[in-house]
Amino acid sequence: MSGISLTFGGNPIFADLDLVVQPGDRVALVGRNGSGKSTLMKVMAGIVEADQGSIVVPPGKSVGYMEQDPQMTGFATLGDFAASALDPGEMYKVERAGEGLKFDPARPVETASGGERRRAALAKLMAEAPDLMLLDEPTNHLDIEAITWLENELKATRAGFVLISHDRAFLRALTRATLWVDRGEVRRQEKGFEHFEAWRDKLWDEEDQQRHKLNRLIKSESRWAVEGISARRKRNMGRVRALQDLKADRAGQIKRQGAAEMALDAGPKSGRKVIEAEDLSKAFDGKPIVQNFSLKVQRGDRVAFVGPNGAGKTTLLKMLLGLEQPDAGSVKLGTNLEIALFDQTRDQLDGNATLWENLTADPLLGISGKADQVMVRGQPKHVVGYLKEFLFDERQARAPVRSLSGGEKARLLLARLMARSSNLLVLDEPTNDLDVETLDLLQELLDNYDGTVLLVSHDRDFLDRVATMTIAMEGGGRATAYAGGWSDYLAQRGPLETAAKPEKVKAAKPKVKQESQPKDSLSFKEKHRLEALPAEIERLEAEIGKLQELMSDPELFSREPVKFKKATEALVERQEKLAAAEEEWLELEEKAEG
After folding, report:
1. Rounded to whole angstroms, how far apart are CA atoms 544 and 233?
2. By residue range, what is the domain housing residue 194?
3. Do the domain assignments include residue 304?
4. What is the pTM of this model?
5. What is the β-pairing status of strands 452-456 and 273-284?
């Protein structure tokens, strides 16, 4: 790519961009939501035409692009679409990719979901095997087994690829170079995504130092201009013009986009027991979803649900929330619950309505979307001001939601979610399309959230950083609880390909070794609780240590009294939880010993 310039609506996306992708390159394409990553990839693919510049693909080389919204008009089945560019007799390539990506090539196009269409588009690209693959969020709508298959395929390929993804583990495993789109500039580092954040922070630090030096120089020159210009007017007009140039340079600098000012309010405390499920069983058309599944969720738990698409994660989640009835068993919800839901399908957003209307309208209450203010955790805020906290500008406030990128839609959903207080967060695939910085902030918010979190995700890195318990939906009605996140689950269960299928629902193996195992004198629920308690105690001790370290700062009270007060309350609460957990463990251990 040489001298590429592109402008949308008067705002330059890129100017005089030069970029080379070499054969066999494995490149992470990163940048904030809205920075132009997908646009750059579409320019590479020839889907978007640049205003200026040229793109050269050497003779005999091919470039393939995975479409986000593939057009399948004229094709009867997903397989017909995926095989459309292959020679006769090569359908086996589509069938192989379909098996790995978990879609049925025989599925009629007219009945296929958006996720199935995207998987068909990815299978089409993998089957065609171009010399350069352009992959824009390929792991969206894939479960972890399919992500693992795709990861292994890309590791084995000789082709080059450029990859946009929110999945840190996927990027770390696959990339050897990084392209960073930042304020219209594209930088390249010959290291994979694993080194991106250190590189980014170093460049930002250098930028801050240069800006600081420029501000000092302007301040110095401005003082000279005020104090000495009258006596040396003719001789020093060049210096005055230089000062004007310095100010112009500063004005021309594009300010870095800050982090979204997201906040979560846990609202009133729920009861200590949030959800208690006992012996749940559920089947659809004879296919078991869960059998004899029991679970106790306590205030402050972060419970992740993982498993193949179609295993029943959402169904189990609905049963635990009382939104769907089990065939057998019971669910008791705790007291004083305030539930907030993040829906991966984005069904909560009206694509034809504006961002403004989506924030202020409530059809259930008959409230139109014309108000100037939105209630944010009990306090009125102007709609535009609140949208700016989530990195939307005033122009976007009046734009239809359908014009947003996937990441921007996810941010708008988070804005809706965080406008209300809650003490039980239900997050169904919250990481899809979010950029690295927003993911970091969301994880930090969940770490500090005083409520309970139920999480469905295929993002292995996010699971590791958030979950304190993982419920693995393993098919055949098997649902197993493991302490910790994804890596903890793998360590306890073994590799996905070789792990034996458990015969029945069993509880997590404790992360802390116990002196003795529970005896038959304990009920199933008590055994499960005894085995889970050491991990809970370990987590509480770690949280107490962090809070004590924070409060050891002697200036904290005078500098940030609100933060000091919250930290004090959190420390007292966690110490009470720890004492209760230790007491419960002792009682169960004594009962186990008879």
Report:
1. 66
2. 2-62+130-198
3. yes
4. 0.69
5. unpaired
